């Protein structure tokens, strides 16, 4: 669904009627003075009826979508957007629709490239590139508002055995099964990524270490109950998972960033592996329990 937003000083029913002919497009008109609040609406395309009135917003914002200006071409316009164009009169409906569709296509291609660059091909989860950007954002938010942020690094136990015994195809099937199971359990605001070959890193905003541990234990038990039966086998292959938890802020008087928080989760995971696997270990408890 494309979200087309017309920014104008007055209602634009004629323009809305023309744009309504575009398949899968939602059209609305918003006061041009509210352009700076574009993120609330999340437009796919912004149509601006008066570039002069929009000048302040254009100078102070970088827009994540294309823009179409109604009126004469302004060669010295400062526009930071995914692309932009001018059209003298939207009442030339054929040309207007062509311009609008071309700009929507730019947005569609850009979004697709962004998804491809930040998505793991096998599992469909986010990849490490996406993780690094989002985790830094969440740490900044946690620091600003004084909230807890937890990370759980999961690792499938004895995953190499699955590949060696049944082949990489069945290893891939197991990875996708576990990814789907974990994805179905998380909240909308959580960030789930494929971190390594058989590793998944889950970022839990506004989550204490205790609650992260409860989630990790619940998922560990779900994996333990899995029925994974490769082709040709009569019995299920037992699957377990280990996990390490770190919670920001992790240590007092230490400057911590995304890499630091992940490294602490890695230490906790290695501790879980060292202690026999099929365990969830909290970084803060490692010295107490070793």
Keywords:
alpha/beta, 2 domains, Rossmann fold
The strands making up the biggest β-sheet line up spatially as: 2-1-3-4-5
What proportion of the residues is helical, as a percent range?
40-55%
Overall 3D geometry? elongated
Q: Which CATH-level-2 architecture of the largest domain?
A: 2-Layer Sandwich
Reported by name, the CATH topology of the largest domain is Alpha-Beta Plaits
State the major sheet: 5 strands, parallel
The structural domain count equals 2
Q: How far apart are the termini?
A: 54 Å
Regions with little confidence, pLDDT below 50 for 5+ residues: none
Order of helices and strands: EHEHEHEEHHEHHEEHEHEH
Mean pLDDT: 92
β-strand number: 10
Overview of the molecule:
With 290 residues, the protein is an alpha/beta fold. It folds into two domains: 2-117, Rossmann fold; 128-289, Alpha-Beta Plaits (2-Layer Sandwich). It contains ten helices and ten strands. It has helices at 13-19, 38-41, 55-60, 93-117, 128-145, 159-166, 168-185, 209-224, 258-274, 286-289; strands at 2-8, 25-31, 45-48, 67-70, 84-87, 149-156, 191-194, 199-205, 241-248, 280-282. Strand 1, helix 1 and strand 2 form a beta-alpha-beta unit. The longest helix has 25 residues, at 93-117.
